[in-house]
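Dear support,

I submitted the protein below through the web form. The confirmation email said the job was done, but the results page showed an empty box. After a refresh the structure appeared. I'm attaching both so you can tell me whether what I see now is the final result or a partial one.
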Amino acid sequence: MPAPHNAFKQAMKDGKQLVGFWMSLGNPYTAELCAGSGYDFLTFDGEHCPIDIPIFLNLLQAVAPYRAPAVVRPPIGETYMIKQLLDLGAQNILIPIVETAEQAKRLVEAVRYPPRGIRGVAGATRAARYGHISDYLKTADEQVCLLLQIETRKGFDNFDAILAVEGFDGVFIGPSDTAAALGHLGNPMHPDVQKFIEECIVRIRQAGKAPGSLMVNEPAARRYLELGAQFVSVGTDIGILSQGVNALADRFGVRKPLPL
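What the results page shows now:
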């Protein structure tokens, strides 16, 4: 029996465009609720949110019965952390702050078993259904989707060199960090930032990789898709909950200023 088929990776290979939802709360109940909403994928953010390895496991278990593939973002691209996530059964890994081609090559190696890579070999992992997937070690590499996030000035300076690295599937452009890199901290909707992101999407496509982003501004998200972005998260759990709670409080006239 081979490793589970990665529908997310296959869809990008086929040129399809996927609309996703961004998860920051790290709560399995919330994850399960959103997994049933019809999004093409859910991204679990462990870079800026309190999601560690055990919580990633809870989240993966919560969404497993649904048709919303999970994309997991660890806080950093450390080999040991990537290995743990893969052994938990994560197949789509998004690595933040990729700045050089050499770093990209190391990350490609981290998601593959020897001799193609350096992923550590374990036996009865959740990814291998605790030993029930007999051919897991021979077939896992092809089902792992590696996404690299370029978002710093150094990363953009090395953009073409990173794109030339073989073995990864897509590039994620983070609007907030991109805005900071371009001198517009806190203003990702600045025209210069949006123009730059649009140019990046085109360049990623030309390099044969799948472009992606997070954009809660609906016209901008639709623009990214028009330009050929293939995986775009169009909302966040924190954003929707906050907006809904505040709007309801406003309607009942009970909202008060936050204490300083």
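Response: this is the final, complete result; the empty box was a page-load delay. Residues 191-206 form the longest helix (16 residues).
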